[in-house]
Specification:
- By secondary structure, the protein is mainly alpha-helical.
- Helices cover 58% and strands 7% of the residues.
- It is built from 9 helices and 3 strands.
- The protein has a 3-stranded antiparallel β-sheet.
Length: 297
């Protein structure tokens, strides 16, 4: 007898379903692998694309050193910002010196020779209206006025010389100055207001009231003139002949050394101290004889 194989429909159906499930599983597996590959490729493309964009943003121009115009522009902007910062800072007030009251009652500011042959001096005195602004008294005098004052002083000091007048003293002075100009010893005249004040300083100390002869007075006066020319004159040296007279030859140098020994400090002070100069200047102006007519020579 032969063997009979029988196939159950259910078994066949189950086999078919198993085969279909196996086929579907294979398809799903392939689909997952393809999807994984697609995702992997897409991610690589995305990374590569981002790297290219980042590389494009960094340009060689930015990495290169800045040009001269760019440096100048940056410096200008920095300077402007610095100024704005400094303007915002509070400004420190500048200290202002506080005026003080002068220690002396009289302070002088002297102007020697103002171009018209006059001498001006400013004498400051305290004012009752202000403690810091002293009142000024302006003293002015021309060369002729000061020469007349010098002559009046000599006449008053040498009262024993009854025939002496101020014109004689002025003539002695002008003759010497003219002689030095004509002989070429000086290029310009010596007689100026400041120099007349200097001559008065020497004569006031040297000329004694005991002089009783015109020759003695002329010799002493011209000795003072020689020292004044030597000290205040524009030339290096001056000759002795116009200044020295026969009656004064023996005592000329003795008188000169005596004057130098006594008055050197005052001669220096007269040029260095305006206050002292104004005092001497005012003293000379006070020597004017008010009883005589006001004539300038």
């Amino acid at each position: 007898m032969g063997t009979v194989l029988s196939i159950s429909p259910a078994t066949k159906k189950a086999s078919i379903m198993d085969a279909e499930l196996a086929g579907d599983a294979a398809k799903n597996d392939k689909s997952l692998k393809r999807h994984s590959m697609f995702v992997s490729l897409s991610w690589k493309k995305l990374v590569a694309s981002s790297a290219k964009k980042s590389a494009k943003k960094v340009t060689p121009n930015l990495l290169a050193p800045p040009s001269t115009n760019q440096v100048a522009q940056l410096n200008s902007e920095n300077t402007r910002k610095t100024h704005q910062t400094e303007e915002k800072k509070p400004k420190v007030p500048i200290p202002v010196p506080v005026p003080t009251v002068p220690t002396q009652n009289n302070e002088a500011a002297v102007q020697n020779g103002n171009g018209n042959g006059r001498l001006s001096a400013v004498k400051k005195q305290p004012s009752s209206l202000s403690l810091v602004s002293p009142r000024r008294i302006v003293i002015q005098a021309s060369t002729g006025e000061l020469l007349r004052c010098l002559g009046d002083f000599m006449c008053r000091r040498c009262f024993k010389l009854k025939e002496l007048n101020s014109g004689d003293v002025i003539l002695w002075f002008r003759n010497i100055d003219r002689t030095l100009l004509l002989q070429g010893w000086q290029d310009q005249g010596f007689i100026t207001p400041a120099n007349v004040v200097f001559v008065y300083l020497l004569c006031e100390d040297t000329v004694a009231d005991s002089i009783d002869s015109p020759a003695e007075l002329q010799g002493t006066f011209q000795t003072c003139l020689y020292l004044a020319y030597s000290y205040m004159g524009n030339e290096i040296s001056y000759p002795l002949k116009p200044f020295m007279i026969d009656a004064n030859k023996d005592v000329f140098w003795e008188t000169s050394l005596r004057i130098i020994d006594r008055l050197s400090a005052k001669m220096l002070q007269l040029n260095a101290d305006p206050h002292f100069f104004t005092q001497v200047f005012q003293d000379l102006k006070n020597q004017r004889d008010s009883s005589e007519s006001n004539l300038d020579r």
